[in-house]
From TrEMBL:
It comes from Floridaenema fluviatile BLCC-F154. Residues 15-224 form the Signal transduction histidine kinase osmosensitive K+ channel sensor N-terminal domain. This is Sensor histidine kinase KdpD. InterPro entries: Histidine_kinase_KdpD (IPR052023), P-loop_NTPase (IPR027417), Rossmann-like_a/b/a_fold (IPR014729), Sig_transdc_His_kinase_KdpD_N (IPR003852). The keyword Acetylation does not apply. Keywords: Kinase, Transferase, Two-component regulatory system. It comes from the Bacteria. The keyword Iron-sulfur does not apply. GO terms for molecular function: kinase activity.
Amino acid sequence: MIHSSEIFHQSNSQRRGKHKIFIGMAPGVGKTYRMLEEAHKLKEEGIDVVIGLLETHGREETAEKAIGLEVVPNQEIIHTGIILKEMNTNAIIARQPQLVLVDELAHTNVPGSIREKRYQDVEVILAAGINVYSTVNIQHLESLNDLVAKITSIVVRERIPDRILDEADEVIVIDVTPETLQERLKEGKIYASEKIEQALHNFFQRRHLVALRELALREVADNIEEGAVTSSPTDRYCCVHERVLVCISTYPNSIQLLRRGARLALQLHARLYALFVTRPDQFLTKEESLYIENCENLCHQFDGIFLRVNSTDIAQTIADTAHKYHITQVVLGQSQKSRWELFWRGSLVQKLVRYLKEVDLHVIATQETKSK
C-alpha cells in the first residue's frame, strides 16, 4: 500500500513510482471522487499532489472536489486541422510531483499522441519515479471483455491488459449497490438528463449492475489473495475463492470426474483446474494420449486450466499442486487397486488426507474398469 511516510518522501530517482487503482463496476460509483478525497488528505500532510488528467463528465460534486489541487495543463494536438487536448505526460515528468492523479486509465489517446493508450503514459510516469493514482471500470479489463459483452450485450472498445491490475501496488474497489447507482443516475449525477432513460434500459439495468458488481468484487479479491501469497509464499494462506482440482488419469472415468468437478466449480463460483500426473517411465498408447487430449479439451471448454506434471509420486504431486494453486477442493476417482495393493502400499486418499489437512477431498465412486 502507498503510505506517505514510507514512499512519498523518497527521491523520485531512487525508485519506480507506486500505482494505486480505484476500480468500480460502472460509471458513477464514485471512483474519481474517492481518488480526489484521498489526494486532498495527502496534500494536507504535505505531499506534492497534482492532477494529470481529470474527467468530471459534468458532475458538479466531482468538479468541486478538485478545487484546491494543482492541475498540469493538457497538451494541445492538432489533428486534421482540429485542436485536440490530451494529458501532457512530458509536462508531468518535468514537474516531478510526488503524486499525480490520472482519471480513466483505459482511455484511448487522441490521434497524433506519442502513445496510443493512457495506461501507457502512466507506465512512463511510473518509470520516472512518480506515484500515480488512477481510475478504471471493471468492464475495461481485457480478460473480462467477452464476459462483459455477454452480460450487457455491449462490446467495450477501450481496454487495459490484465497485467496493469496485477502489477498495481494497491487496488481499491469502490462499491455501491445497484439500487444506489440507479438512483444516482435518475438524479442526474452520472449522465445528462436526455441520456438517463436510455442508460436505465441498457447498461444500467439492475441485472447488468449485479453481475458487474460481482465481477469487480471477485477480481479485486483475487488480486488481494494472489498478492498476499506472492509477498509471503511460506505463510499459510487464506483463499478468498474456492478452487477445484480434478485429478485425472487414463482411466475412462476421468471424463466423468471432470464433469463432476466442473459442476462443483460452477456451484461454488470457483476456478477449475485439472491435473494429469504421468510417470517419466510411462509411455502412453495412442488411445491413452487421445483420451488425455480429450480431457484437456473438455477442461478448456469449462474455462478450466489443464496441468501436466511428470512425477513418480502421484500423491505428493497432487499435494504440491494443490498448495501451489491454493486449491480448496480436490476431486478424484475411487481407487482401482486391489485390496492387496491397498494393504501393502496404502491408498491415494489416505496419503492426501495426511498431506492436505485443510483441503476438502471428493472421492467419486465409479464403475470398475480394466486397469491400464
